[in-house]
């Protein structure tokens, strides 16, 4: 899928100092990450816990500042946003939907409070009557009746509260929604409704979505492209069907092997994990997956791999995959 570039992360890096005041230890949460999100596109950012997915979302939302690198939104560097008006405009165009919707609501106020407050802050030209009408409209858009506006958060189910989070984001007329594991706390039977909602927002309203998840199956259902994160770095990226049909990075293969196969017998055992956890505190050069990789070679312990295009639009940061691809090209020529 090709589309006009909406957002671009250019060498995005986020480090955290850990330990006491005299400590020099640094946690490399996100390291030199490059990716784009196009208009009318759902990009899935997948990986295990601690891979840096949520940190990227918080940096894109300007909740955290990047250690280095730049974010370009609609071709303009986000770091140059200075005025309050520009900050409000950006936060309205790039809102975030959090994993726990209940945590973003005031339990003593009706759910309409958050939507009306967003409208008053980001669309001040609306009158009180127009704000009420717009709140009802966005609730209808996300599959909630207008009567839900008068309810308290505790009166809603988990799926309904998550839809309220999307309604608050839609009230600001966004161009890109940062959805941080929006279905991970929901029952499986409810997840499909939220995934369909994201697809509908893309198809009918032209809203792009960065869908952060550890669930490859849900990413395949809704996303156009897939970015696989490991230990703060991008391991593989490309059109989701191509990546899942021909995963080139061993970590992507490991993630796919963990997806349950309903056709497998109950006694079948999946591929077991192996090796040590990723080292993201003061990491040394080399591939951060090498301790768990069954294909690791000497180069993996010496040189940090960089993303390279193996097929059109399909990139992987893996020495073994890049060598195999180069060998195939030499053999063909």
Task: Explain this structure.
With 333 residues, the protein is α/β, with parallel strands linked by helices. Helices cover 33% and strands 22% of the residues. It contains ten helices and twelve strands. A hairpin with a 2-residue loop joins β11 (308-311) and β12 (314-316). It is globular, with a radius of gyration of 21 Å. The model is unreliable at 266-272 and 328-333 (pLDDT under 50).
Give the topology string: H per helix, E per strand. EEEHEEHEHHHEHEHEEHHEEH
As a whole number of angstroms, the C-alpha radius of gyration is: 21 Å
How many individual helices? 10
Instruction: Give the strand tally.
Output: 12
Residue share in β-strands = 15-25%
Low-confidence stretches: 266-272, 328-333
Described by the principal axes of the CA atoms, the overall outline is globular
End-to-end separation: 29 Å
Mean pLDDT across all residues, rounded? Answer: 88
Largest sheet: 8 strands, mixed
- Overall SS class: alpha/beta
Query: Helicity, in percent?
Result: 25-40%
**What is the topology, as strand order, of the major beta sheet?**
6-7-8-3-9-10-12-11
Throw out a few tags for this protein.
four-stranded antiparallel beta sheet, disordered C terminus, 33% helix, 333 residues, alpha/beta, 10 helices
